Amino acid sequence: MDLLLTFIQKAIGQGIAILFGATGEIVTEKSGNLNLGIPGIMYMGGISGLMGAFFYEKNVANPIPLIGLFISFLMTFIVSALGGFIYSFLTITLRANQNVVGLALTTFGVGFGNFFGGSISKLAGGVGQISVKTTAAAFRASVPVLNKIPIIGDLLFSYGFLTYLAIIISLSMTYFLKHTRKGLNLRAVGEDPATADAAGINVTRYKYSATVMGAAIAGLGGLYFVMEYYGGTWSNNGFGDRGWLAIALVILALWNPNNAIWGSFLFGGLYILYIYLPGLTRATQELCKMLPYLVTIVVLIISSKRNKHESQPPSSLGKAYFREER
Amino acid sequence: GSSATKESSSDTIQTQSSESASGDTQDDASAIKVGIMYIGDENEGYTESHMKGIQEMKTALGLTDEQVIEKTNIPEDESAYDAAVDLADQGCNIIFANSFGQESYMMQAAEEFPEVQFAHATGYQAASSGLSNMHNYFTSIYEARFVTGVVAGLKLNELIENGTITAEQAKIGYVGAFPYAEVVSGYTSFYLGAKSVCPTATMEVQYTNSWADMSGEAEVASQLIANGAKLISQHADTTGAPSACEQAGVPNVGYNVDMTSVAPDSALTSAYNNWAPYYTYAVKSVIDGTKMDVNWCQGFAEGAVGITALNEKVVAAGSAEKVAQVEAAIKDGSLHVFDTTTFTIGGKSLEDLIAEGGDYAKYADYVSDGYFHESELASSPSFDLRIDGITELTE
Amino acid sequence: MSKDIVLLNKEPFIRMVKRDSITTVKAWFIRMIAVILALIVAALVIVAITKQNPIEVYLGMIDGAVGSKRRLWVTIREILAMLCIAVGLTPAFKMKFWNIGAEGQILMGGTAAAAFMIYFSDKLPSGILLIVIIIVSSIAGLIWGIIPAFFKAYFNTNETLFTLMLNYVAMQIVTFCIVFWENPTGSNTVGIINSATKAGWFPSLFGNVYGLNVVLVLLLTTAIAIYMKYSKHGYEISVVGESEFTAEYAGINVKKVILRTMMVSGAICGFAGSLIVSGASHTISTSTAGGRGFTAIIVAWMAKFNPIAMILVSALLIFMQQGSVQIATQFGLNENASDIITGIIIFFLIGCEFFINYQVELRKKSKEGK
Amino acid sequence: MEQVNAIELKHVTKRFGEVTANDNVSLTLKKGEILSILGENGSGKTTLMNMLSGIYFPDEGEIRINGNAVTIRSPKDSFSLGIGMIHQHFKLINILTAAENIILGLPGEKKIKMPQVVEEINALTRKYGFDLNPMQKIYDMSVSQKQTVEIIKVLYRGADILILDEPTAVLTPHETTKLFQVLKNMKEDGKSIIIITHKLNEVLELSDRISVLRKGTYINTVETKDATVESLTEMMVGEKVSLDIKRTKPTNQKKRIEVCNINCRNKEGLPVLTDASFIAYSGEILGVAGISGSGQKELLESIAGLQKLESGQIFYHTPEETIEDLTKLSADVIKEKGVRLAFVPEDRLGMGLVGSMDLTDNMMIRSYKDGRSFLVDRKKPRKLASKIVEQLKVVTPKLETPVRRLSGGNVQKVLVGREIALNPTVLMVAYPVRGLDINSSYTIYNLLNEEKKKGHAVICVIEDLDVLLELCDRILVLNSGKITGVVDARSTNKEELGLLMTGTGEEKHKDE
Ligand SMILES: Nc1ncnc2c1ncn2[C@@H]1O[C@H](COP(=O)(O)OP(=O)(O)OP(=O)(O)O)[C@@H](O)[C@H]1O
Ligand SMILES: Nc1ncnc2c1ncn2[C@@H]1O[C@H](COP(=O)(O)OP(=O)(O)OP(=O)(O)O)[C@@H](O)[C@H]1O
Ligand SMILES: [Mg+2]
Ligand SMILES: [Mg+2]
């Protein structure tokens, strides 16, 4: 029972970071931009939030948790948005190839994260000495009162606010895309920018906003991981390949943020399943770690066989748009 | 000697250390060059401790910055060979490497540069390599682990006494990297330490299959806790496990670094290596032109291992006294960590098993005088027996 | 008419106009400027975050990459591996098949090479063993390439993610194999395979350990350049890449071309695995591919699939990478700083292509009477 | 009060690199009139209109809307000036509904109130006499339905200046008539309209005035009542041209292609051809008529080996009087058998040619496999390319120009030229003159006639019934995938064809 409960809790914990990334990428892709820089941006987001909190706590005698939280949140938001901006500038304004820019951004972002992670580690007095206890505690604070309910409390109310924020963002993004004018316009931009343009939509502005916003949301995944999951510390490459899984989740979710929610929990569960399955050897554990990737592949195949118009990627995905081009 | 060090100190930050060390440096200390390649960098606890050791060696021997070339993030492939020979090309007289998988590449380089000394930490092949310039070194970290085990045992006792858990529930969870002697020896010594004060203690070990997988370590710790572990220890390099323990409120023992920054309310202490004694010894041997040990392994007595300050907030009352007592006993040789009377394998004593022959016969060389002589035949750990009371969850 | 009229008198401030053509000299001039600008920006970053003299840092990089004969050869070896992978990716990308699975294909090739080195070192004479290794590693990469190609051809499955996921599957397969090959048990390290016999290793050629690497990769590069530009297969690849309908119309068996091209692409990447394992590291680990599969995409793309340009681009990137080892040592700038610098340079190089393809026109004041 | 013009273009120039698409063009659209703009392919009509719709920005010149000088930087600016453009190629988002497409990019409340939008759209469709389900997805729509959406989209925005770029190119005569009625209703409503079309009879029927462009320059504007097909053509081309199709009697007819009871389905699994059987003879032009989407495309593609057959058989009778079974053979196998089948598909750049490749490489599409060599031979294709450029007067800067850059008419010439160069015994062409100006159209008709004279079998799908009647020897009529008749072109008339095309079952099928 305890094991199952912990498993579900941890699966959700693992999933949330991916969920932020996937939601951000969905918003981005809806504008026709395939941002393979998301994994890098998540590193950038994570480290900048940590740095914000770190310097705040370091320079203030009695840090106030909420201020630390606010600063780190803002830092993450700004820096990851900046990552999205670099991508946007290169691909939208300069019409560079999206895949190349994305991959380069990932190289850059991971380097950025690890470099500054190392730097503040040094400032903090060595490895594992970074700690933004106060801020992290604020991020980790679970829902008061409700979290005391047995089982239900653990299952539903034991998480920090970012967990709930991730879900709220996903739900509201779905609503945004489906029911609002701006959402409709955004979808149009991703489907066919020339048509959207002819309809009077400012394609460039939509692409920029969606990509920058998407990056900022994805960056929160990094912040979540550093703050709520790790409790306010840094380990180089500690975020692993979750950014790539987030991109995979976009397809699994068929570009619908609501689907990404359960999808992320599934991924989270598969990610740690090997620890919970009894009787595995080291070798079979390694095979078990393939599961998230294999499941993605299977879903990919299944969803490609079902050739529904609505479950296809935005049709201009990956292509640059230039009004005067034919 | 002092003139040389003063000259070179002018342009670097090294000033105060060279001055303080100038006393007993040999004349040709200024001519020597030291190279070291690390598996990681200063952002990784294990490498960081080596870096500290090198720094202290520099201070102690009065070497300048130019005399020590440090290469970071050298993986366990041909890059290790490239790095080693590059250091040799740059005129290093002695070259160190700190990761297990770099050993064969070190040997390849050692063969090519017979006049350069190559020293490899955690490895085991120097003696058998037939290369006179190849050396292995390690610390008796198991001693420190035993002591941290004692701290853990006392904590378990406290939990039993104040009724939080029953004596039967005194289960330890252990986050291990890989199932080979270095780790097995480590967790066994930790367990024996805990058991020496808390006889009902049991232990479960789960591997992460990585030396530095922060998330994996955190997840394994969480799983062990969910599985009933009341205390967590680790032999892997990140702060993942303590960070998970802090959230779950479970006391824990770390490795390499003081964990109180990530786990202020749950970290007890950590076992750590102090590499300075070896680096000082090795470089000094080269300066002096004396022969270096093929296998070097030292522990508490020589200050090569230790435990970080006890976290008074968390440790059981009286821990400090007990720790002092155990440390003293280890130093004076009255306590042997792998005392064969303290553990059984399948219900039998190790001596009996060796006498029976079979698979266990190979341990005959290691066991005498009532204890397993860890790290004496070779510097790297060799205790890889699975003793009673410990369950490996990964089969 | 009741509708209110909007008077808009401002002409857009800058406008982009597509260039018809640009001379090669001018294009390279623009690229040169981009590199210089990138180096200046990177220098500013270096100063900002490390307070080091950037010129010295750059000199340190040069020293690290080509400062000695041995370093030069290590750099060449790495360039060759990168080039080989980029060459391997070329047919797939020309076909608009987004193979970002080179990493996995390299790993599978490397694993196959390692397996044969381990299991057949005493069963086959060394020359034959080497040939067998090259063949099986190519086949392993080929298999890893043909799986996503099959699903792309028959179910139109998105290959970008498929190949990406296969990278991780390959990674796990390597880890799985290491459990059986590691020495000593439990250590997770395979160590140098056949260090005594050197069975399955690339032999020295022209007195150089990496001589064979040079010969093989340059041969391969030439072959692929010809294959793409002058062969019927190459033509088919271009047509399929541009339009599947046209391809069918032209009587091209699209499925066959997709499969065949990914076989070629995967096989070359698999061969790169043996180049790395048999030709350099003589071991296998999860870092055998080491991100080369991703970097090679950037290389192939930035070079616009031109083999000569690919040599230049991989040289530039590898130069940065090798140089970074030195600056880490010399200035305590850790290697991640070089990722940042490399990122900046790539951004500039990608960005400058815009100015090669488009002309920027500023608002002309003279006209627009009102 | 002085009457202001809806649009005044003054000395407008637009260049694309070396090409001057519009050179000092001045043009006026009066309020409440329908103005036709005529011009050969590439004469700059679309470019000119695109400057009004905000797609392009003029290099020089002035635009006045309702008397005021304006700067149009984007489609949005254009909308706010009350200009609505219906583009040559539909600008609709396939996965969205009609209603969603219509409100795209419009300001309004954040949340979309769909029922309200639908009501507004229905009001518009009632007013002008359209037939449209606002909740239908675009991908489920026929061409004419899509065009309806485009027009309503413009009206919904309150445009009072409408620009239609070749709106009738893809419509059936019946649909065209309906469209023209709607346009006349709008004119009554006070709207000003510009229409671009290559069909001169439509121009004469619909417009009040006609402006003509030639090679980017403005030639003249005439009142429709003073114009004739001949005078307009002369203005466009700059010289007198004869517009006759010289139809000869078929001689020495032999069976060439025999199609027996073929059935096939489209991607969605719906039947597109049902039990179709016919025979095409050598030395004749067999026309295929039908409203769009009746299975014309599939019919040709089945023969060419590009369409999966469910059942039925296709035979090829060689000139040597042997019979080859082509059933279920793919294009490459058919070619390997030595069957000389040429096919000009409807989608020129999406199927017949590769847009990004140059002329030489496009020539190779049909011949690259020739010879045993592993390497391709580019010498012959290059020769062929320059031959076609020369003989068919293809306008291209050089042979290395990507064909995407050529104008539609020139693209078509390249394609037809290449197919004829195969020296085929069967030539199939789909919509050979769609979007082509009148001069280019006649060039193509003559090419088809020459093939016929050579004794080859020509099968062509053409939507213009007048042309069918004038050009073909026999006409095969399709209705919803069924062959409803094969008639003699010399003795039939438009009414008979119209009946066969629509039949009685048509309305029923559409409602399903
Ligand atoms: N996007 C573009 N880029 C470059 N040149 C262009 C572009 N669009 C049009 N042109 C040039 O402008 C000229 C006029 O093209 P335009 O499309 O206006 O012709 P058109 O009169 O509409 O022809 P058609 O009757 O076939 O529609 C062409 O010769 C072409 O060279
Ligand atoms: N992107 C472009 N770059 C350069 N030239 C172009 C481009 N687009 C069009 N052109 C030029 O414009 C001319 C006409 O183009 P356009 O496609 O408008 O002709 P079209 O007759 O309208 O074709 P269609 O009727 O099929 O649309 C051609 O001569 C071509 O050279
Ligand atoms: Mg046009
Ligand atoms: Mg046109």
Written account of the structure:
Chain A has about 325 residues and is mainly alpha-helical. Chain A is built from 14 helices and no strands. Chain A has helices at about 1-30, 40-60, 65-95, 100-125, 135-140, 150-155, 160-180, 180-190, 195-200, 205-230, 240-250, 255-275, 280-290, 290-305. The radius of gyration of chain A is 20 Å and the shape is globular. The relative contact order of chain A is 0.21. Chain C has 13 helices and 2 strands. Chain C has helices at about 25-50, 55-65, 70-95, 100-120, 125-155, 160-180, 210-230, 230-240, 245-250, 255-280, 290-300, 305-330, 335-355; strands at about 15-20, 360. By secondary structure, chain D is α/β, with parallel strands linked by helices. Chain D is built from 18 helices and 20 strands. In chain D, the strands form 4 sheets. Chain D has a 6-stranded mixed beta sheet, sandwiched between helices. A 6-stranded mixed beta sheet of chain D has the order 16-17-18-13-19-20, sandwiched between helices. In chain D, strands 2-1-4-5 form a 4-stranded antiparallel beta sheet, with helices on one face. Chain D starts with 6 loop residues before the first strand and ends with a helix. Mean pLDDT of chain D is about 85; it is low at about 505-510. Chains in contact: A-B, A-C, A-D, B-C, C-D. At the A-C interface, helix 3, helix 4, helix 11, helix 13 and helix 14 of A face strand 1, helix 6, helix 11 and helix 13 of C. Bound molecules: adenosine-5'-triphosphate (2 copies) and magnesium ion (2 copies). One magnesium ion (MG) binds near residues 45, 46, 88 and 165 of chain D. Chain A: It comes from Candidatus Galacturonatibacter soehngenii. Chain A: Pfam families: BPD_transp_2. Chain A: Keywords: Cell membrane, Membrane, Transmembrane, Transmembrane helix. Chain A: It is a multi-pass membrane protein.
Please describe the topology of this protein:
The complex is a heterotetramer of chains A (326), B (395), C (370) and D (512).
Chain A: H1 2-30, H2 38-59, H3 65-93, H4 98-124, H5 133-140, H6 152-156, H7 161-179, H8 181-191, H9 193-198, H10 203-229, H11 242-252, H12 257-276, H13 282-288, H14 291-305
Helix pairs in contact in A: 1-7, 1-10, 1-11, 1-12, 2-3, 2-4, 2-10, 2-11, 3-4, 3-5, 3-10, 5-10, 7-8, 7-10, 7-12, 8-10, 11-12, 11-14
Chain B: H1 2-9, H2 15-21, E1 34-37, H3 45-61, E2 68-71, H4 78-89, E3 94-97, H5 103-112, E4 117-121, H6 126-129, E5 134-139, H7 141-161, E6 171-176, H8 181-197, E7 202-207, H9 214-226, E8 231-235, H10 240-248, E9 252-255, E10 267-273, H11 276-288, E11 295-298, E12 305-307, H12 319-331, H13 350-356, E13 367-368, E14 371-372, E15 390-392
Parallel strand pairs in B: 1-2, 1-3, 3-4, 4-5, 5-11, 6-7, 6-8, 7-15, 8-9, 9-10
Antiparallel strand pairs in B: 10-12, 13-14
Helix pairs in contact in B: 2-3, 3-11, 4-5, 7-8, 7-12, 9-10
Chain C: E1 14-18, H1 24-50, H2 54-66, H3 69-94, H4 102-120, H5 126-155, H6 159-181, H7 211-230, H8 232-242, H9 244-249, H10 254-281, H11 292-302, H12 307-331, H13 336-357, E2 358-362
Antiparallel strand pairs in C: 1-2
The structure holds adenosine-5'-triphosphate (2 copies) and magnesium ion (MG) (2 copies).
